[in-house]
Amino acid sequence: MCLILVAWRSHPQYPLVVAANRDEFFARRTASAEFWADEPNVLAGRDLEGGGTWMGIARTGRFAALTNYRDPARQRNDAPSRGALVADFLRGDDPLDAHLENLMHGAGDYNGFNLMLGDGERLLWFSNVSGEPIELPPGVYGVSNHLLDSPWPKVAAGKAALATALGALPDEAPLFQLLRDDDVHPDEALPRTGVSLDWERLLSSAFVRAPGYGTRSSTVLTVDAANKVSFTEQTWLENGQPGGRKHFSFDRTC
Question: What is the pTM of this model?
């Protein structure tokens, strides 16, 4: 993902609400969201080149989502795929703290990442750029290709829009609308992450359109107070037009 917006215990009926966009090269082979044939408890899309995924949830309520940390100067071509970090957590059943402790030992092997992990009771954020994991108290959070709640324009705008959209639940339309925001922010508000200014402009919107690259899927995930999970994925074509939409609903097995 390149934008993850999360409302954690901020709505009386929906303890977890996630609205997220995955930005990627259109040439990278991808499977849309399904319960995996080799891991039938895992619901996620799949990166058919790296084998992992960017966001998903298990029937147990284990949730994980990932963004890359953008810093071209620190990018290593021989690093393992970061998508494995999400897939490994979704497949597992180890306690959250134990999983993070093991993960931290090898986190430096990967290029920079942000990782959100939840077990239905707790939600944590960890980046191998910043150091220690943080357990998140109730609130609204956003992460793009920097650290959690970095004041990038699309993160700040997305968090504000998510806080407003919570009032419309169970209607998911406002959540998808905020993910479709393709406003390009002014130059003076843009971060400087080591890519050209033209690319900073293209990447500044929540919904990205660039030559051969852009938002390929938007996902809305909710878990309600009765442990009912709703997962909706909208895929996008290279011209920004909608592709397919999939919806899944199931009861979390606690």
Answer: 0.96
